[in-house]
Write a structure and sequence with these properties.
The protein is built from 13 helices and ten strands. It has about 375 residues and is of the alpha/beta class. The chain has a single domain (about 5-195, about 210-360), classed as TIM Barrel, CATH 3.20.20. The protein starts with 17 loop residues before the first helix and ends in a 17-residue tail after the last helix. The model has no long low-confidence stretch (mean pLDDT about 95).
């Protein structure tokens, strides 16, 4: 957890970009929380590549274009958004700050950013809804018991959430060696409160496979996506797509949007960076539904590149929780403001007055 003696909820002097928050967060979080938030699966190859893949893409500006009066507005699922930067679902935010998800929700609302609440939040869906504004979605792990899944969905509907984001790429937890080395555990007074009362199936015998005989035995499949889409009036978004064929399947089973994601490199190591898989998916989707992307975004230029490759919007994960640990809700708001400012500057320097003006020919191809 964050050292309480360091909690000031003020933006430290000299913080001018997202990487400054990451450096300071490592100093302020204990080893347990740092391993959880900063770590990835296995050798963390995908974790690193999510970031380096953006650095390999170069921008090709156009000059002397009229951009006065430009904006970053867009529409997603019939709702207006001021800019294309959303807060990704992040579990156990009280590990970073006592204000937890409610603090992040308030910051997202202040910056008019979409906010996706994790199933594994440390505060109730209702508490978070009270702290948040509009543009809030619920990230959903399909539960072993469909009744429990519907309970979460009905609570989200009743609390004014505007979409259900089903995470599909983590039916089994990744091999997170960094967490294993520190013996990661939640503090005794912290849990995923929204699922705390749900009974879980008994673990298999020692001679059985934990992956195949337990986790995969209760894992959802495509039929669950179709069932969920039929059971809720909210749009269902499928998060965790890396293959174009799965994008097709998601749409065919009722997805109103998809999120290209590799879970921040936290589940299966050595899968491609999301920005590298995005182009083939957006070509396959061909505008049928919005395509969003997360993973490795640290600059407004990264947001620009994602949109140039066909994304409608992006989601930001680790930088949000790092800023929360360093400066509370002010830090989260600052991260969102920095990204939006950097995006607007990149758009201006590339001759793009609106998001629709950002095209693939703004990327340099040797």
């Amino acid at each position: 957890m964050t050292d309480p003696s360091h909690i000031r909820d003020e933006i430290p002097a000299g913080v001018v970009c997202l990487s400054d928050y990451e450096r300071l967060a490592q100093q302020r979080l204990d080893a347990n929380a740092w391993a959880y938030f900063a770590g990835g699966a296995g050798d963390e190859i995908t974790l690193r590549d999510n970031r380096s893949a953006f650095d390999r893409i170069q921008l090709l500006p156009r000059v002397l274009r009229k951009c006065a009066g430009g904006n970053t507005r867009l529409e997603l699922l019939g709702q207006p958004f001021t800019h294309p930067i959303l807060v990704a679902p992040i579990a156990y935010q009280k590990l970073a700050h006592p204000g937890g998800e409610c603090a992040t929700a308030m910051a997202a609302d202040a910056l008019e950013a979409g906010f996706v609440v994790s199933t594994l939040a440390t505060q109730s869906l209702e508490e978070i809804a009270d702290a948040a504004g509009q543009r809030r979605w619920l990230q959903l792990y399909v539960q072993a018991d469909r009744a429990h899944t519907l309970d979460l969905v009905r609570r989200a509907e009743a609390s004014g959430y505007e979409a259900i984001v089903v995470t599909v790429d983590a039916p089994v937890s990744g091999v997170r060696n960094r967490e294993q080395r520190v013996g990661f555990r939640l503090p005794a007074d912290m849990c995923a409160v929204n699922t705390a009362n749900y009974a879980v199936p008994p673990r298999p015998a020692a001679t059985q496979s934990l992956a195949f005989d337990y986790f995969m035995a209760i894992a959802p499949d495509w039929a669950d996506i179709a069932w969920l889409a039929s059971e809720t009036r909210l749009p269902v978004i499928v998060k965790g797509i890396l293959h174009p064929d799965d994008a097709d399947l998601a749409i065919g089973h009722g997805a109103a949007a998809i999120i290209v994601s590799n879970h921040g490199g936290r589940t299966l190591d050595t899968v491609p960076a999301t920005i590298d898989t995005l182009p083939a998916i957006t070509v396959r989707v061909a505008g049928r539904v919005p395509v969003l992307v997360d993973g490795g975004i640290r600059r407004g230029t990264d947001v620009f590149k994602a949109i140039a490759l066909g994304a409608s919007a992006v989601l930001i994960g680790r930088p949000i929780v790092f800023a929360l640990a360093v400066a509370g809700p002010r830090g989260v708001a600052h991260v969102l403001r920095l990204l939006r400012d950097e995006l607007e500057i990149a758009m201006s320097l590339c001759g793009c007055a609106t998001l629709a003006d950002i095209k693939r020919d703004h990327l340099f191809t040797p």
